[in-house]
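Duplicate of earlier report; 4-coumarate--CoA ligase input re-posted below.
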Amino acid sequence: MKETFSTSSQTLMALLPSCFDPRSGYCNKSKTFHSLRAAVPLPPLSVPLSFPAFAFSLLPSPLPSHPALLDAFTGKTISYPDFISSVRSLAANLQHHAAISKGDVAFILLPTGIDVPILYLALLSLGVVLSPANPASTPSEIARLVNLSKSSLAFATSFTAHKLPDNLPTILLDSLQFQSFLRSDQNSNASTSVEIFQSDIAVIQYSSGTTGRIKAAALPHRAFIAMSAGFHALRPGRLEVTLLCAPLFHSFGFFFILKSLALGESTVLPSLRMNRITGILEVVERHKVTLLMVPPPLVVAMTKLEVMKYDLDALEMVMCGGAPLSIAAAKRFYKRFAQVLLAQGYGSTEGGGISRMIGPEECNRLKSAGRLVENAQVKIVDPNTGKALSVGQTGELWLKSPACMTGYIGDDEANAAAFDSDGWLRTGDLCYIDEDGFVYVVDRLKELIKYKAYQVPPAELEHVLHSHPEVVDAAVMPIPHEEVGQIPAALVVRREGSTLSETEVIDYVAKQVAPYKKIRRVLFVNRIPKSPSGKILRRELANHMLCSSVSRL
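Output:
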């Protein structure tokens, strides 16, 4: 497919405005920030192209001899020739036996497993829209998602299928029938030729479940082509062995398994039965993992291991995404693993990858989320006035990128709020970009605490709390107050055996922030409710506070 790359990187760079500042990426004339990465040419939108076709076109010939996928629990591996053969066989058999066709929506309720990426690529090659969901969801939650996505069939296992609506046709991955579909002799003469355009929807991913009503974000094949092309342009010159510790139904894990397969890497998939951080590090040692992809809670767990008994000499980078990582945790990481790069990034379900770190110099910017990814444009907009801001000024980040969603399914109101009239995606994130082009995420716009006339970012206070040596985890939330509107309250998980008091926490924070940002109430809890990617489930924080007496406030 290389012939479709009709525009050179040099030509694309020449298209940047003359006012472009090569240090920050800011254009004073258009009030926009441009990526400092070399532009990556993409196939013309008019060219019919599915993500699987694009991914397979990137693989070398002959195909790599190393495993494409490896199951850390069973030890089972799949080579690249077998992977591609299984994808094509499964697509043909599903098309022939299950009457699946382009535009159908497949609801996917599966734990991480070696057959899941095969299913993803097979369905995408048929033009079927994927709708992955968390297997831990309740039947009522799943019924809402099925209705929202208009799914016409489902893929599950014998352990998750009971949660699906009774009238939804379901194929079980742990059935003999499905396993037979992976073999070419089942229906070798079937044709899977389907014309798929890059603008066709590839996946429906669910967003905003932690802060509001759930919305179904539709992402096209183009989004995953663009993001994978960016990684391909910067691929290392040696084999990357990745341990992907992110759920494959989550946008973070979903994209990175697709990207790893497109780049010909070896991807190790963990088992849910593994003993969290100790089991993960055993796998890193056993399979000589070079890239470990984990959510922030696992990075924190790595820094707090009392004894390091694992050989991690092959490990070159830990990539952390899905939620913010505190500065204190990043510093502890480098103190413990001095030879390993800690790369953070920033993205969203709706906007895809927005920024990330590359190389030692960028990874040392601990407070940042790296620089804008290739082909991205950003505005920083004052949420009150709508004025576009400049370098170093904090406002809502607006995005234009080939990785953006096309919109929310069946939600005109949400789409009107998400996009402006010129097609800029409002991320809802308060950010600023410094003079060197590094992106800093301050907080979610909707999560700001309004104390009197001041805005207090919970994430800033959470970073301060995480820096306390006796605090294992923390979250900050607003509590209504008659006189001042809202006051910041903290839920704190203490280190085992700690006698840290509420007064000590309040005083610790007060010494490091402006008076209006001070914590006014502390509740000690056993855990902070979080999503699988490590994001704080802020709607659930209120339940903790309600369970404790806050009437004295």
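The longest helix spans residues 80-97.

Merging into the original ticket.
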